[in-house]
Amino acid sequence: MSAEKFYRPLVHFTPPYGWLNDPNGLVYKDGEYHLCYQYHPHDSVWGPMHWGHAVSRDLLSWTHLPIALAPDAKGVCFSGTALVDKGDKSGLFDGQDGLLAYYTITADNVPFNQSQGLAYSSDNGRHWTKYAGNPVIANPGIEDFRDPKVFWHEQTQAWIMLATAGQQIAIYRSTDAKNWQFSSFFGEDRGAHDERAWECPDLFEIGIAGSKETRWVLVIGVQRGAYARGSGTQYFVGQFDGERFIDENTPETVLWLDYGRDFYATQTWSDMPAADGRRVEISWMSNWLYANQVPTQSWRSSMTMPQELTLKATPDGLRLCHAFIRELEGLYQNPVSAADKTQTTPGAVFDFDWSQAQRLQFSLELKDNSSLVLQPFSELRFTFAVHKGQLTLRCQRHGQIGVTEFDEHFPHDFTVALGHNRCINADLVLDRSSAELLLDGGRYAITNLVFPKEGPAQQCSAALVSGEAIIRDLHRHDLAKVTA
Ligand code: FRU
């Protein structure tokens, strides 16, 4: 099998051909999850942006549909959102429920060229009509003005739009989906910034696990200044009154949704069925530092595994926690469990071959002054270490060993502080060219691409380097190929 073929993931969403970046227009309606995405159908590098489109009933097996939005004389179609207009408040759907999509119209070669456009569909996304009065929000004199996220705010009976406005977020309101009034800006002096604009906001209300209270969570992409360098996703926790988002942490607090290199442009699905109640996100599994250079040719980039987000009270404050969607269990094959094991001498703790996609779960207890290496690919190594009662994780990724690096930014080496030493669980999804690691009930997420030189056959091993480790509750499953 050619490396190019081998790298196409088995259980993650990829475009049939061409380039993919951000997830767009995530909405659930009539039993279908819609996934649109930034798409260049004519080449596998970024170019004139379209919205590719696929639907799924389980968030794993996707049916590709025709392109939802294509460039026109007004410009190309940058990122945005979709939602259900329940009860036809917009008047666009003859009294029925319909789908609204908001996207950024980016015009060619003029200053302040980004504005927000509306498109709508009355046949569950099979055909989209661009609103004749576009743009619905003209550019207000801000160079980076894009990535509209729209939702219905029940409490104040209005639609809310968030859009990137340079290094902050602009918040708007509307009662007819077409005319929008500016409410406020958020964020200039908050969280992580770099020299570029913030990107791809999302805002949602979420319950605090085990309590009746809720909070509003604002998710934002940082293109170059993320935790592991390059692109990454941060979030804020606070309140939203329909006009203003109030961050409840100090201005310098930075909360990372994922600590790895390849988790960007996060968006959550709108209009999940009430009986479900989950907040499910998906992210682009790449990084603008090298996205255009990764070693695939006919297609480029995939989405992450969809994950359910919950808000939990931790000793550090309220934090978003991740869990792979439960639908993933439907792909399980060849279950393997291992007896609990205490390891007191350096050497292998477990070791197995894998070739396509798999999920590995276990819990790990390390004694003080101990360290253990978990190595799912020869090019990716996680070192857990305990020193003076503090647990850390070092993550080292190589490029393609032995061949010229495709990009100098790809290899990396960073450490995440995991706090006081304790027994923590690990949940690892490996696909042909990616590793998504959730630790400590999903409190920490680390997502990385890997392009193994050796091809499909890999070894996943754990070895004690020093001290003592106890591994409990180890379960491993192969994941079956997803077919639409
Ligand atoms: C984020 C982003 C968005 C923009 C889109 C263009 O990855 O830069 O801000 O809308 O990609 O493809």
Automatic annotation (TrEMBL):
Domain Glycosyl hydrolase family 32 C-terminal, chain residue ranges per copy: 348-459
InterPro entries on file: ConA-like_dom_sf, Glyco_hydro_32, Glyco_hydro_32_AS, Glyco_hydro_32_C, Glyco_hydro_32_N, Glyco_hydro_beta-prop_sf
GO cellular component terms, semicolon-separated: cytoplasm
Residues annotated as transmembrane: none
Uppermost EC category: hydrolase
GO MF entry, a single one: sucrose alpha-glucosidase activity
Enzyme Commission no: 3.2.1.80
Pfam family, one: Glyco_hydro_32N
CDD domains: GH32_Inu-like
Naturally occurring in which organism (per UniProt): Tolumonas osonensis
Ranges for domain Glycosyl hydrolase family 32 N-terminal: 12-314
Name the UniProt record assigns to this protein: Fructan beta-fructosidase
Similarity comment: family membership: Belongs to the glycosyl hydrolase 32 family.
